[in-house]
Design brief:
The protein contains 10 helices and no strands. By secondary structure, the chain is mainly α. The longest helix is centred in the first third of the chain and has 31 residues. The chain starts with a helix and ends with a helix.
Length: 193
């Protein structure tokens, strides 16, 4: 029993350190306007040893990649969580609302990575595309076209909302406008027949 308690405590402490490193890196990128940040700066700001950093991440690039992967996995998880047997579920407002609520909860990180990382938007779009294909590939005659459209609209709206307007609108408004775009599209009209 004692060993289990100590492991849980160590796991929580390790998770706390890992999250602190990620949050610190995002804050430094935002402050600097650049992803050129040293591990020395990260550990100094976190008030941890360099060895603690290396327990969690092999390099700064590994850290950045893990942060990006976490956000992408969470967005794809939202799609899976709302998945229904029909392809038109992707285009329903509650799905858009869940995605944009998530982005709003992590608005600093999304703005930071969309602004200062050339690959973030492309990777996000690719994974949304892959998730769409995985969930509907047997239900549409040309799922690649629908997946390309969906991924492009979602990532385009996230980019516009985050970078171009810096969250001028609410997540609910962006979700409504995105749903309107989907509803007026011929593809969605075909899916709803």
């Amino acid at each position: 029993m004692w060993g289990v308690r100590m492991k849980v405590k160590k796991d929580r402490r390790a998770q706390h350190s890992r999250n602190l490193i990620k949050q610190t890196y995002i804050a430094l990128v935002q402050e600097r306007g650049s992803t050129v940040i040293s591990i020395t700066e990260i550990v100094a700001r976190c008030n941890i040893n360099r060895s603690t950093f290396y327990m969690h991440f092999q390099t700064k690039e590994h850290l950045q990649n893990q942060i990006v992967l976490d956000f992408i996995e969470d967005i794809c998880g939202i799609l899976v969580q709302h998945a229904e047997p029909s392809p038109n579920f992707f285009f329903q407002q509650h799905v858009q609302q869940a995605i944009f609520n998530y982005v709003e909860q992590h608005y600093v990180a999304f703005h930071t990575f969309l602004t200062f990382s050339d690959s973030f938007m492309k990777r996000l779009s690719t994974e949304i595309y892959n998730q769409f294909i995985a969930l509907v590939q047997d239900k549409l005659p040309a799922p690649q076209i629908a997946a390309t459209y969906y991924a492009s609209v979602i990532t385009g709206m996230i980019y516009h909302w985050s970078v171009e307007t810096y969250y001028h609108y609410s997540a609910q408004f962006i979700a409504q406008e995105t749903t309107k775009l989907f509803e007026c599209n011929m593809l969605c009209q075909q899916l709803n027949r």
